[in-house]
């Protein structure tokens, strides 16, 4: 039991960190540019595939550096030549542009790499067991993922709070017009933030690819969860996104290991579930089976009890 | 109100209050009558089986896209999960049909889409009460999340959703009336056309009600709507529920048409498709989504026969519309309205000619892009099937250099030439409008 | 004695640590034309936002015709007979002038969320809309998209939307802002006409307009009312002169 809790906590925190790697970039872009980048998970997917493909040629470690930079570069170009032109058509058009982009990226990935999973493997240098907790071997690769995520956050925090660029970004988050009038090149800052945001998503892809499945439906699977994270955390709040990422990461990980169903619980207190009827399945479904939809249930709960999100401010 | 103002107003009020006479009523009803006639004679013009199927699909999509536009175009609500009401409408319809067949109830098929409508309304109310608590971007994400919730639930609630295979039914086994068993596609087409016309009239009528006008106000400026007495949240909730109703009707018609509903009908793909259709057609007018529905259905059927990567072309078309024609096809047509109103037919003709001139290089550019896409596809995924392909009936080998060089020339050259035509089109446009406006002032 | 149209009791509004409204109490009797003046940043628009429900007070109460409406959302306050205009023009940009005004009359005529009646056949809606359009002198521009109107026309439309519902209490936020002398004069005439028999509270910077229209003036400085009296006495009040009008008056 304790073993299960420990492993699940580690995995849950790891999953939450990966979610936050993406949610942070998404929140930065949203706060700064007012656009929710529907294609954010697509850049995550591109990171995974680029990491895989470049890794085939150059090896895991060079790919680890090159892939996110490439994807971030693509992101910057998308902002410069795509998003910036759509901006004048209004917020709906911006969101739809990123929606179309997500669609197209998925199709292109499918076109080039096919619909099946790519053989993206954990590099040999990390393919050992880091430690043995109780009776389970915890892979070193997962520790690597965790450490990388933490290191990136530390760097981000340092850059945002201690460098000039970081201060300009922070100011542009809330007062972009003022920053522009102070002589800073706000469009270039936008391009930078979009590029870094998508680059972060790509890093998540590069490191998660070998551990999870690298497949063309990656973005479609993770995208909605990512958006639930930012709505639950509160649109525009980095701290909220952090909280929500950890919450969803932990809850989903723990849920997967619980094999109780409603029928079990009811049976435990001596109540027999009804047999038959259209919702008959509900009684026998286990918590583990509903784990994939738990984020969405959380979304509905938050909407009922706290519509602006955990740490959100009032409507933009 | 002071006496002077009300006095003046009273006079003109009386003048403006002339009752809508018979002529006005005819003018109102004429387009719908013409549409009904058109629906009726279409199968006489397009007689093949595949054409009939496509017309049926278009009818379903028109209702679906119009219901979507009640949200986006009319009330400013961008939803990524509208297929939930479409699909659930379909599921409730197949279950209802199976119940009718099983219990031998005296319910004829034409009435069945009402079940879809009821389902759409019910779930619209249930999910709408939660969804419409937020607006804007948050609403969009919530609609996405709810859509995923329902789509994922389909694997859990296997009794209702029928698992991977879905739920099937037989439309010929319901009560037959007037000798119709709805087996042949032509009968199904007329059923769909009838419901499509009904739904179109209903949705159009909705836009001409106080509620419909307030939806527009809430779309434009929700805060100001508050300060004239309306709760934007209530407005959105009602609009959402009604949009669900019509989406449910569309889903029911689809269920009757295919005699099968599976969980993909509630999924993100279907939600994306209706969004595409409505937006490409143009969300700023009533007829936009109709145009979009017809076009998207046609493309979907035609393109998927010609190429495997038709969805990529769809996505690129969509991005193109978002970037360059955000008001859709209807919007592009409406831009020319002032010319039409000024009866500047000569200018319009000249403008059309410049469009044709610009069209040439655009087609060249398009050909180049298609070549690149098709060849890339055949080099990467389908490489196992050999690299010989046929594009525009020209046999090519995707692995050799020559087609790639040709593609590069077509793409880059086409783009360069196309760019050259932009100033020409711009000048013709300005000239046409200056003439048209000049004519109007002179009159 | 009938309750005053508006009664504010010790109203406070803080944004975080910043105190914008620091204890405002005010009674405006029904039918009075009341102007609120004060230097920039005094909190005049914030006060309007508190009265109209756009903001919730940190403490204190707002009463309309004797009823406590503190904390109610804007649409509830509007339904109780309060209408307001905005300093930054707040219209329905892509709707026509006609539609703008028509949307503003619907609730007050009782049509609420009616989706079962055609709007073109509603004679009272059409009549009322035409009356308003004549009053604001935009009847000839009825088909024009509101967003492309000239600035002064948009301000007139703003007032039109505000009065269209027939509210008994009208709040106008800098109605003559950005207008030329001639346009301002016409705005004043319009305001006088439409506020006949109703309660009017007006935020204004143009002293000519203020002294022309107002029955009483309140002076708001740093979130507090330093004087509230008839125009003649306000002109002579030394505190007001120092704070706002300049001692050379």
Describe the structure.
Chain A has 316 residues and is an all-alpha fold. Helices cover 72% and strands 3% of the residues of chain A. Chain A has a domain at 2-221. The radius of gyration of chain A is 21 Å and the shape is globular. Chain B starts with a helix and ends with a helix. By secondary structure, chain B is mainly alpha-helical. Chain B has 18 helices and four strands. Mean pLDDT of chain B is 87; it is low at 1-18. Chain C is built from nine helices and ten strands. Chains in contact: A-B, B-C. Chains A and B meet through helix 3, helix 4, helix 9, helix 12 and helix 14 of A and helix 6, helix 7, helix 12, helix 14 and helix 17 of B.
Main attributes of the structure:
heterotrimer; A: 316 residues; mainly alpha; two-stranded antiparallel sheet; 14 helices; globular; B: 443 residues; 2 domains; two-stranded antiparallel ribbon; 3% strand
Helices and strands of chain B, in order, run as: HHHHHHHEHHHHEHHHHHHEEH
- The CATH superfamily of the domain at 75-245 in chain C is known as P-loop containing nucleotide triphosphate hydrolases
Query: Within the largest sheet of chain C, what's the order of strands?
Result: 6-7-8-3-9-10
Most residues in contact: chain pair: A-B, 53 and 49 residues
Alpha carbon gyration radius of chain B: 25 Å
* Sheet of most strands of chain C: 6 strands, mixed
Strand content of chain B: under 5%
Task: Give the uncertain stretches of chain C in residue-range form.
Answer: none
Shape of chain B: globular
State the end-to-end distance of chain B: 37 Å
Brief overview, please?
The complex is a heterotrimer of chains A (316), B (443) and C (249). Helices cover 72% and strands 3% of the residues of chain A. Chain A is mainly alpha-helical and 316 residues long.
Which helices and strands occur, and which strands form pairs?
The complex is a heterotrimer of chains A (316), B (443) and C (249).
Chain A lengths: L1 H32 L6 H19 L1 H27 L4 H23 L15 E5 L2 E4 H23 L1 H11 L1 H6 L4 H23 L9 H16 L4 H19 L5 H7 L11 H5 L2 H4 L3 H12 L11
Antiparallel strand pairs in A: 1-2
Helix pairs in contact in A: 1-5, 1-6, 1-8, 1-9, 1-10, 2-3, 2-4, 2-8, 2-9, 3-8, 5-6, 9-10, 9-14
Chain B lengths: L2 H14 L5 H24 L3 H27 L7 H21 L9 H19 L4 H18 L4 H4 L5 E2 L16 H23 L2 H11 L1 H5 L5 H27 L1 E2 L6 H14 L5 H20 L3 H15 L3 H7 L2 H5 L3 H36 L7 E4 L2 E4 L3 H42 L1
Helix pairs in contact in B: 2-8, 3-8, 3-11, 3-12, 3-13, 4-5, 4-11, 5-11, 8-11, 9-11, 12-13, 13-15, 17-18
Chain C lengths: L5 E10 L2 E11 L4 E5 L6 H9 L6 E6 L2 E2 L5 H6 L2 E3 L12 H10 L16 H13 L15 H14 L4 E5 L7 H14 L4 E5 L3 H7 L2 E6 L2 E6 L1 H6 L1 H8 L4
Parallel strand pairs in C: 3-8, 3-9, 6-7, 7-8
Antiparallel strand pairs in C: 1-2, 1-4, 4-5, 9-10
């Amino acid at each position: 039991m304790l073993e299960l809790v420990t492993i699940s906590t580690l995995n849950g925190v790891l999953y939450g960190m990966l979610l936050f790697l993406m949610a942070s970039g998404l929140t930065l872009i949203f706060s700064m540019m007012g656009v929710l980048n529907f294609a954010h998970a697509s850049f995550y997917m591109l990171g995974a595939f680029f990491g895989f493909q470049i890794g085939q040629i150059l090896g895991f470690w060079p790919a680890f550096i090159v892939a996110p930079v490439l994807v971030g570069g693509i992101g910057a170009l998308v902002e410069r030549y795509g998003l910036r032109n759509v901006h004048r058509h209004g917020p709906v058009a911006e969101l739809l542009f990123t929606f179309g982009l997500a669609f197209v990226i998925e199709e292109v990935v499918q076109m080039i790499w096919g619909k099946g999973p790519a053989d993206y493997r954990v590099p040999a240098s990390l393919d050992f067991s880091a430690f043995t907790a109780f009776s389970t071997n915890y892979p070193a690769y997962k520790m690597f993922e965790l450490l990388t995520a933490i290191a990136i956050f530390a760097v981000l925090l340092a850059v945002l709070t201690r460098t000039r660029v970081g201060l300009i970004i922070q100011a542009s988050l809330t007062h972009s017009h003022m920053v522009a009038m102070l002589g800073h090149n706000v469009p270039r800052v936008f391009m930078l933030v979009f590029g870094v945001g998508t680059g972060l998503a790509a890093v998540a892809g590069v490191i998660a690819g070998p551990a999870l499945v690298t497949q063309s439906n990656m973005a479609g699977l993770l995208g909605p969860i990512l958006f639930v994270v930012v709505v639950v955390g509160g649109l525009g709040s980095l701290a909220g996104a952090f909280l929500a990422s950890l919450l969803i990461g932990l809850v989903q990980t723990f849920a997967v290991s619980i094999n109780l169903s409603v029928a079990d619980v009811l049976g435990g207190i001596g109540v027999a579930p009804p047999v038959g009827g259209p919702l008959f399945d509900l009684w026998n479904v286990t918590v583990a089976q509903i784990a994939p939809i738990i984020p969405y249930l959380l979304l509905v709960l938050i909407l009922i009890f706290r519509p602006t999100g955990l740490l959100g401010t009032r409507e933009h | 109100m002071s006496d002077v103002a009300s006095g003046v107003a009273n006079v003109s009020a009386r003048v403006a209050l002339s009752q809508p006479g018979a002529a006005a009523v005819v003018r109102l009803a004429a387009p719908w009558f013409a549409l009904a006639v058109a629906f009726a004679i279409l199968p006489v013009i397009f007689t093949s089986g595949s054409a009939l199927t496509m017309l049926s699909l278009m009818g379903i999509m028109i209702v679906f896209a119009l219901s979507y536009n009640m949200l986006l175009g009319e009330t400013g609500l961008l939803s990524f999960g509208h297929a939930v009401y479409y699909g659930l409408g379909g599921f409730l319809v197949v279950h209802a049909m199976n119940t009718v067949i099983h219990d031998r109830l005296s319910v004829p098929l034409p009435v069945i889409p009402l079940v879809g409508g009821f389902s759409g309304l019910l779930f619209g109310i249930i999910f709408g009460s939660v969804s419409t608590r937020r607006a804007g971007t948050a609403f969009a994400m919530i609609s996405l999340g709810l859509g995923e919730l329902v789509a994922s639930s389909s694997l859990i609630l296997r009794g209702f959703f029928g698992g991977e295979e879905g739920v099937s039914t037989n439309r010929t086994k319901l009560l037959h009336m007037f000798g119709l068993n709805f087996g042949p596609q032509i009968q199904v087409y007329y059923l769909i056309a009838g419901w499509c016309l009904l739904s179109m009239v209903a949705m159009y009528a909705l836009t001409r009600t106080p509620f419909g006008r307030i939806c527009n106000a809430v779309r434009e400026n929700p805060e100001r709507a508050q300060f004239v007495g309306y709760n934007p949240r209530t407005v959105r909730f009602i609009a959402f529920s009604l949009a669900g109703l019509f989406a449910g009707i569309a889903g029911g018609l689809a269920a009757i048409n295919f005699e099968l509903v599976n969980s993909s009908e509630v999924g993100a793909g279907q939600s994306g498709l209706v969004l595409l259709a409505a937006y490409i057609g143009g969300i700023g007018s009533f007829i936009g989504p109709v145009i979009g529905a017809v076009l998207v259905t046609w493309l979907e059927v035609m393109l998927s026969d010609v190429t495997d990567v038709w969805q990529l072309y769809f996505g690129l078309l969509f991005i193109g519309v978002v970037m360059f024609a955000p008001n859709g096809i209807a919007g592009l047509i409406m831009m020319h309205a002032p010319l039409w109103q000024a009866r500047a037919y000569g200018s319009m003709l000249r403008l059309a000619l410049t469009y044709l001139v610009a069209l040439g290089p655009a087609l060249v550019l398009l050909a180049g892009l298609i070549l690149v896409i098709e060849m890339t596809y055949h080099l990467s995924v389908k490489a196992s099937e050999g690299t010989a392909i046929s594009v525009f009936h020209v046999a090519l080998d995707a692995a050799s250099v020559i087609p790639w060089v040709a593609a590069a020339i077509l793409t880059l050259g086409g783009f360069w030439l196309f760019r050259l035509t932009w100033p020409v089109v711009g000048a013709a446009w300005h000239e046409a409008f200056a003439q048209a406006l000049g004519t109007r002032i002179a009159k | 004695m009938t309750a005053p149209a508006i009664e504010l009791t010790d109203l406070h509004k803080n944004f975080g640590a910043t105190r914008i409204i620091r204890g405002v109490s005010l009674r405006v009797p029904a039918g009075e034309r009341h102007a609120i003046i004060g230097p920039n940043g005094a909190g005049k628009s914030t006060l309007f936002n508190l009265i109209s429900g756009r903001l919730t007070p940190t403490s204190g109460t707002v009463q309309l015709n004797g009823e406590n409406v503190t904390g109610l959302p804007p649409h509830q306050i509007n339904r109780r007979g309060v209408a307001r205009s905005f300093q930054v023009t707040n219209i329905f940009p892509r709707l026509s002038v006609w539609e703008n005004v028509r949307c503003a009359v619907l609730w007050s005529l009782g049509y609420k969320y009616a989706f079962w009646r055609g709007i073109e056949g509603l004679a009272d809606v059409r009549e009322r809309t035409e009356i308003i359009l004549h009053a604001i002198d935009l009847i000839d521009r009825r088909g024009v998209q509101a967003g492309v109107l000239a600035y002064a026309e948009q301000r007139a439309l703003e007032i039109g939307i505000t009065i269209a519902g027939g509210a008994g209490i009208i709040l106008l936020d800098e109605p003559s802002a950005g207008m030329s002398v001639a346009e301002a004069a016409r705005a004043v005439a319009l305001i006088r006409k439409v506020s006949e028999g109703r309660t009017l509270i007006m935020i204004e910077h143009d002293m000519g307009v203020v002294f022309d229209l107002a029955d009483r003036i309140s002076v708001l400085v740093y979130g507090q009312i330093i004087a509230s009296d008839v125009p003649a006495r306000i002109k002579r009040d030394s505190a007001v002169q120092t704070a706002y009008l300049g001692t050379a008056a």
